Each structure stands twice: as C-alpha cells, then as structure tokens.
Amino acid sequence: MPTPPTTGLILTGGGARAAYQVGVLKALAQIRREVSPDDRSNPFPVITGTSAGAINAAALASHCDDFDAAVAALCEVWENFRAEQVYRSDSFGVIRTGARWLTMMSIGWVIARWRRARPRSLLDNSPLEALLKQMVSVGRLRELMGAGHLQALAVTASSYSSGTHVTFYDSVQDIVPWTRSQRVAVRDEITVPHLLASAAIPFVFPAVPLNFDGMVEYFGDGSMRQSAPISPAVHLGASRILVVGAGRMHEPPGRRQVNGDYPNIAQIAGHALSNIFLDALAVDVERLQRVNNTLSLLPPEALARTSLRPIDVLVIAPSERLDDLAAKHLASLPAPVRALLRGVGVSGRGTDTRGAALASYLLFEAPYTRELVALGVADTLKRREEVARFFGWGVR
C-alpha cells in the first residue's frame, strides 16, 4: 500500500490581508466535515508561514490536535479584530511613533542630534505581543510533534543586520538545514519573538533582535527577500502543498482606470509592499509548475536518477482586489491612525482611494477582516470538488 503524501500548508504575508487565509481554513474545515466526517486528523503535518501568515501558521500548529477548534479560534480573533490589538492606535501612541517618524523624515536634519527623537517605526506594535501569547501556545509545539500531530513548523524572517533571509524551523525528523544564495535555514524552537520578527512590516513595525549564528541580529518581515516561499515546505518533507495567497495571482485583462496625478508616498509605499508580499509567490508557483512539467516528460529511468520529485500544488488566492475592499473600510480605522495615514497620502474621501493598498495591510478592524474571511470562504467553496480531490477527502 503506497505511503500517503505529506501535505504542507504555506501561509504567506500581508498584514491584515491574512484574514483571507482564515476564511480559506474555515472553508476547508467545513468541506472536510461534510465529505469526510470521520477524518479528525491534522490535514497539514508540515506548516510554514511568513509575516502575518507566520502568526496564523503558529497558532494553527500549536493547536493542531484539534484542527476544527484551532480554525474556530483563529476565526474568533480575525472576525472581531481591533487595530489596538496589534498596534498603539490612540492619539498618544500615534504621536510617539508615527508623528515623530514623519517629523524626522521632514526636518530630521534639525533634530538628528537628539537621539531620543529617533523613532524606530511608523507604529508601535507592542500590543501584538500580548495577543500572540493568547493565540499561540508555543510550549505545546514539541508536545504535539512528539504525539505525531505535527511534523514540522517553519517561519521566516529577514535580517537587517546581515541581509540574510532566514527560515527558522522545528521538526520531528533530523532535517539538515539548507543553504541557498542569501537564504538559509536554522533549526530552532519557534517562540513569540520569531513571530514578531517575521511580521515586522518594514518601516511600519520595529525590527526584533534574534539569535542567529551565535550573534544577535535585528530581523524584520520575512516577506522581504523571500525569493522562494514554497521551498521551506518542500525541504521539510511536504510532497503536496496548499498555498494560500494574500493577493490576486492574476489580474483580469484590460487596463485599470488610474489617476493621472503624481503618486504620493502612500501609493509608492503600497506598491512597494505589494512587491514584497505578493510578487515572489506568483513567480515561485510558476517555477514549480515548470519543474513539474519537465519531470512529467522524463522517462522512468531518468526520473529515478534525479533527486527532484513532482510536487502537487493547490493555490487559493483572493478573487477580488483587496486594495479595493480596503478602500471601503478606511473609516473603520481609529481617528488618530486615519490622521497619520492622511499625512502620507491615504485619502479615502469619495472616489479618491489613493493609498488604499498601504491601508490594506494595516486595517486590523473587524468590518474589513470579516469581509476578507467571507471572501476566503466563498473562494474556497467555489472550488469544493477540486479541494476534496486534492486532499482525497470522501475517497473510499
């Protein structure tokens, strides 16, 4: 009897956009209950995540002995989110970080000698640590691995100190760390600081110190310099992989209507973040599909001589532009945060939605995150038969 494939889950980055991932997981749990009600095991022995996806990955992994309950707990958080759970959104908190940061950008040459006036980020994400301690039971990970519920968990972060992209992983098997150009793997016990580092959106949230190669380095968002987001799951033993994206993989044909004005800071920042969070995944999926196509052309004797193996990949990504959804919910942000974002060009007035892309990563507010969860559920249920075939649910 053939060995069943090891299924990996990849949750990508995207700040508040990660609510979409929770919707996908919610729909997966529903489909399994309906077509394979006797299956109560963890469907993802290998789980990897980046940025906000790392938080969801760790929360799911640390409760993977009851997948349905773990998903329900994630839904409880994401469907009732408030920005204050992630970053200081009160007037004083915003002034201490964001307003001072913008001041430094404009007249920093005047006050650069005053070290205390050098904020480290646009927003203060200190509340996030308390939330992570509620969501993620890091102490259970090794226990769950020992009990056979989980084979491996990995999260990624990028070092500002050395420029190295690092995958921190923990696993049951003794997997040799891999090294590629500008990206390495390190076996380590996954902790809350690893998650804070992985989710530290550049410029927006402060870098986090982590021990790496015997030294302390400062790490930021794992989506930076992440050229191969699928790679960690493959190295950790996954032979089929579900990838959940945080942005559309393909744009519809035709040109979008654009504003002819010169782009403001928010537009440029949103474009840069989209490049960091979204582009590498599409490229890596296309690369894997080409490898699979090439391997399918090899005769059995040639395939036996290569270490490469076909990887079955299912990608679920938003069917709608999350920038457009965010534009409808800008008023949900706390007033001090809206004022700060207006300072860099996020409008939200009438049909002027410039800067909505930037806001889409910071909109940790229930009206927006609930809509993303609902979109994730709808997109996944539309592919119900494909999902069931991928997992082999309902197959006798």
Can you offer a commentary on this structure?
The chain is globular and about 60 Å long. It starts with 6 loop residues before the first strand and ends in a 5-residue tail after the last helix. With 396 residues, the chain is of the alpha/beta class. Helix 1 packs antiparallel against helix 3 (67-78), helix 1 crosses helix 14 (366-381) and helix 4 packs parallel to helix 12. The chain is built from 15 helices and 10 strands.
Q: Please tally the helical runs, counting DSSP H or I stretches of 4 or more residues.
A: 15
Largest sheet: 10 strands, mixed
Radius of gyration, Cα only, in angstroms?
Answer: 21 Å
Q: What is the count of β-strands?
A: 10
Order of helices and strands: EHEHHHHHEEEEHEEHEHHEHHHHH
Summarize the structure.
This protein is α/β, with parallel strands linked by helices and 396 residues long. Helix content is 42%, strand content 14%. Strands 1, 2, 3, 4, 5, 6, 7, 8, 9 and 10 form a 10-stranded mixed sheet that branches.
Short descriptors:
396 residues; alpha/beta; 10-stranded mixed sheet; 15 helices; 42% helix; globular
SSE arrangement:
Layout: E1 7-11, H1 19-35, E2 46-50, H2 52-61, H3 67-78, H4 91-111, H5 126-135, H6 141-146, E3 152-159, E4 165-171, E5 179-180, E6 183-187, H7 192-198, E7 208-212, E8 215-221, H8 231-235, E9 240-244, H9 265-296, H10 300-304, E10 312-316, H11 322-327, H12 335-342, H13 356-360, H14 366-381, H15 384-391
Parallel strand pairs: 1-2, 1-9, 2-3, 4-6, 9-10
Antiparallel strand pairs: 3-4, 3-8, 5-6, 7-8
